[in-house]
Amino acid sequence: MTHPILFSSGIELSPLVISSGLLLRSWDVIASRHDNIVSDEGLGLSWKLYKQPGTDVVILAFEASSDSSSKLQPDLVPYSDLLLSTKSNPEFSVNNTAVTLFYENHQKLAQLLKSEINLSNQSNTKLIVTGHGLGGSVASLFTISLLDNVGSGKKRPLCITFGSPLVGDKKLQQAISRSAHWNSCFLHVVSHKDPLPRLFIANSYMPFGTFLFCSDKSSTCFENPDSSLEILVQLGSINAQSQGNQSSEYGNIIENLKPICKDLTTRAEDKFQPDSLLACISLQLQALGLTPQIQQQQQQNIDINALEAKMKKLEEKLIVQRRIIFDPSKKLNQMKGHMAQLEWYKKETKDEGKGYYDSYKNMYYQRDHDVVELHKKLTIYWEKMVEEAKLKPQREGSAFRTRYLYGGTTYRRMVEPLAISQYYKDGGDDYMKKKRSKHFELLEEWLNEAGDKDKKNLQSTSKKNVQAILTIDSCFWAHVEEALLSCKELKAGKEKEEAVKKLLKFEDYIYGVLKNYEVSPEIFLEQSSFMRWWIEYKGIKGTSYSSPLASFMNDVGKRKGYIQGTYDFP
User: Fold this and answer.
1) Which residues does residue 217 pair with via DSSP β-bridges, in sequence order?
2) What angle in degrees, to the nearest 10, is found between the helix axes of 106-115 and 96-104?
3) I need a surface site. Which of 103, 303, 448, 505 has the fewest CB within 10 A?
4) Could you give the domains of the chain?
5) Rounded-to-integer distance, Cα 132 and Cα 248, Å
6) Phi/psi at 162 (5° precision)
7) What span, in angstroms and rounded, lies between the C-alpha atoms of 379 and 396?
8) What 3-state class would DSSP assign to 132?
9) What phi, psi does 40 have (nearest 5°)?
10) CA–CA separation, 326 and 351 (whole Å)
């Protein structure tokens, strides 16, 4: 059996990051190596702004005061006032010291953005936000706040931190990682001797973004947060007594930075050729000085083989997750094919005088059973799509929802009646309260929240196209089934007064949707559940009963006019 060849992306990513020149450009601003840097100070925090001549690049560098840095503590505090939070993940926690610095200077930073940094839609500004130590933590929070406003647009800032402590908990990491666009905006440079980035690894903190780990001789990248955390743990065990890297040390590291050495590549390939992923991991660990030989020299007791095996499992898990990540656009055409099949099914059953709702409910033919599979596939797809949209940061999720608004609305109006028919066939009642799927509710909610133009296109109907419309209310048939149950209760003499109220309310509802031409003419088919309800209800009320709906339903000409789109309601 041939196994797939797997690789760790960090080997390719590290040279790309180093060769881009972004690290050196960012560090030059932190180290004030340009004449035209504009500096300003706030409360316990200062920042430098540099506009690179002849380009659209703007670099903003944060630096925490020594007093603020000395007060750095591991306390986590709730942070829920960003659109990054979602209904499924409403709150996450961040470092108290960093977020306090950010909030205390927020007003001045907002003014800086407005007056000095043009991030409007018409601007081509490319913003790099950077910082060293605690200043890097503030840079991360500032970048998150910017992403919160730019949403899914293309002008996202890039955050590059140097030797910064972790800034938030696992919920923050998950919220950022759910958007590949957001996660790619963070690059953290960490020296293997620097204790500050690993300061909070035992306090429920979690990395996010890409980590560039650097040793004296080489460097490598990890995008997997679990892998980055494991590296931080291991570096802590071999450098327990080391002091924090000073600015000058990171300057030297960046100037002399190299990707994984070629001689290490050769040794790893020779040793682990049958297992490409393990070879990559071994190579990356060697680049950071995590090898049996070095461990012996330093008299450390790390089981490198066990570490390699653990890292391999973490990377394999990430690879699998990326393969199964739900991408609605990949299957959208296939779903359109399924919807086309349902349209054909709808047409066939209409021609036979049944309607697709009742045909599916009663399972008259083999084709009805075949539709069960279509129903299942479409439901699985849209449930996943809705869940994906829920988990995205709110602004980006909103753009995602708008993109699929039309398809989701058509799906809901076509497929929810199938779910209703199955539920009542199995003896259910009160579908709206007891059984309605959350994804149907959210699809309807998103339509109600949509812009006026989208709502008008999806909600408006006319007499001219009444033959082609899908009933606007996807729960129409649930109301019909409840009316049938009320008729049954009325005949049995159970809760008579309540049943009468429900039926009168249903009458008003039906007449309203008919008057607005919001219901498909299929409801008038001879074998439809709606016509069965009307016959039962008419029998209960008697021929002398008078109401707007009765006047309409008792007149075959009026019903025919509705079907043809020629009837004008009074």
Assistant:
1) none
2) 60
3) 448
4) 10-119+127-261 (3.40.50.1820), 334-564 (no CATH)
5) 11
6) -125, 115
7) 23
8) strand
9) -150, 160
10) 38
